[in-house]
Design goal:
Layout: H1 3-23, H2 27-44, E1 53-54, H3 66-74, E2 78-84, E3 88-94, E4 100-102, E5 108-110, E6 113-115, E7 123-125, E8 130-131, E9 137-138, H4 144-150, E10 160-164, E11 185-188, E12 191-194
Parallel strand pairs: 1-2, 1-7, 7-10, 10-11
Antiparallel strand pairs: 2-3, 3-6, 4-5, 8-9, 11-12
Length: 195
């Protein structure tokens, strides 16, 4: 068995375990932990000096972003990822009173708005299944975010890449590959970790 295949199996094992554990959270646990995680983020990073922030639309029991949406919307700074053909992502700042529609992954996306270039963001909160001990993101397996950030690795101005995760999504192992996205900061209900 080659190294690439072994790594793929390891990632799939962790992905399955983390998704199952996330799915098993009760509504009360999910809301309470999501609140603490967002508060930990806001205690560490102020949104007042930030011009553009990308937030995901939570799905599949991901950390809720209700508190961050309220904070960031005051400043009209939010853009949302939109899935495009050929496994591409675009970040769109929704127009006022814009409608949202479900994409092919059952994730809400704005139906109209203005594109914000990746490197025009001060920070991007990236959805994640997990993170390894070196800060490499474990995604859903489609490579959308890896592809976005691979195209911008050599750029002088890069957004901070933030993970908001439940503590059980931190994996005490190493599985990051050169093409994988790496977080700058990860926040859980237990606090912050910088990479």
């Amino acid at each position: 068995m080659n190294w690439f295949l072994i790594l793929k199996l390891v990632k799939n094992k962790y992905r399955h375990a983390a998704l199952q554990q996330r799915k098993s959270l009760s509504d009360q646990e999910h809301l309470a932990l999501s609140q603490i995680i967002q508060e930990n983020f806001l205690q560490s990073i102020s949104l007042s000096g930030i011009k553009n922030i990308a937030l995901y639309m939570p799905a599949s029991n991901e950390v809720s972003l209700d508190l961050l949406n309220k904070e960031a919307s005051i400043y009209n700074k939010i853009s949302i990822p939109v899935v495009k053909p050929d496994k591409q992502l675009q970040f769109i700042k929704p127009k006022t009173d814009c409608e949202f529609a479900l994409n092919k992954f059952n994730i809400l996306e704005p139906t109209e708005g203005i594109e914000v270039e990746v490197n025009s963001h001060d920070l991007i909160i990236v959805p994640s299944v997990g993170v390894d001990k070196n800060g490499f993101r474990l995604g859903y397996g489609g490579g959308y975010y890896d592809r976005v950030f691979a195209n911008h690795k050599s750029s002088l101005k890069k957004p901070l890449l933030i993970g908001l995760l439940f503590s059980f999504q931190k994996i005490n192992d190493v599985f990051g590959e050169s093409h994988d996205m790496k977080f700058d900061h990860v926040f859980t209900e237990l606090g912050e970790e910088k990479f």
